Amino acid sequence: MYNDYEIQSDWCNASEEQCGQCDGTWCEEQPKTEGICYIDVCGCPDNWLNSWCDLEEAQFESEWCQENNLRCEQCGGYWCEGEQLVEAEFDGENQNNQDQDQNNQDNQDQDQDQEEAEGEENYSESGVCYIDVCGCPSDFLNDWCDVETAQFGSSWCQANSKNCEECLGYWCEGDDLVEDEKEEEHLCYISECGCPGNFQQDWCEASYNYLPNGYCQETEGKCLECQGVWCAVANDDEQEIDEDGEDEQTIGANINLFYAGFAIVLMVLNM
């Protein structure tokens, strides 16, 4: 749906380049937060795509997917808002009785066929259906995924691998259900400072006062030989950059070399 200031052309709205050719200004879509993200196989409550869908089970469990419409789209869901959230009720009061009876019979036949198909699948399968954007716990595709909220809430999607596939999910079994534990990182800090978060001196800095890479950083035992302290640290691949554009490890290189010499002297004295 277009607003009053939007160029009413699908072609112009297809990309930033095509927008420019239409003499328009390309604006990034602002996320919508007033709504609920439902799984693709169900759609919105006002027009369910399958008879087994309901307000609770058809919602994505993940808070990340529920954050806004853009994330919901990344999760492969339907973003529903306003009147779309009102579940349609079919009480038959305003419908022709004959048509209603025929529809009921068709629904019964369809449900029976579906139950028979599910019965064939259920007897030999055990697993969990996870949303497409997360995959299986053994190798989650995003950092925000976890074993609880990344599961489909729908019991229909969880019934078997075939249903899970129709829900655009990942069917995970056995070792795939075991979440990969991220190995804790450690650094060997000089004994005068101790570990970050509980430094012994005011002048200690987490980015400066560890011993240089090499022998002292290989194991806890070697760290102790260097008269250091073995500290668990956050696993952060991003280096902090100072105002001049240099990373802090480069800035602290000369400082660390000094402490390396200091550690070697201590080792010689203890021999």
Summed up:
This protein is an alpha+beta fold. It contains nine helices and six strands; from the N terminus they run H-E-H-H-E-H-E-H-E-E-H-H-E-H-H.
Task: Walk me through this protein's architecture.
By secondary structure, the protein is an alpha+beta fold. Among the domains are: 36-88 and 125-177, no CATH class; 185-235 and 248-260, no CATH class. The protein has 9 helices and 6 strands. It has helices spanning 16-21, 63-66, 69-74, 97-122, 161-166, 215-218, 220-225, 248-251, 253-270, and strands at 36-38, 78-80, 128-131, 169-172, 185-190, 228-233. The strands form 3 sheets. It has a two-stranded antiparallel ribbon with strand order 1-2.
Oligomer, anyone? single chain
Tell me what portion of residues adopts beta-strand conformation: 5-15%
Count the DSSP helices: 9
Low-confidence stretches: 90-102, 120-124, 237-254
Series of secondary-structure elements, N-terminal to C-terminal? HEHHEHEHEEHHEHH
Strand order of the largest sheet: 1-2
N-to-C span = 79 Å
Calculate Rg over CA atoms: 29 Å
The main sheet comes to: 2 strands, antiparallel
Mean pLDDT value: 75
DSSP helix fraction? 25-40%
Query: What structural class do helix, strand and pairing data support?
Result: alpha+beta
Number of strands: 6
Shape: elongated
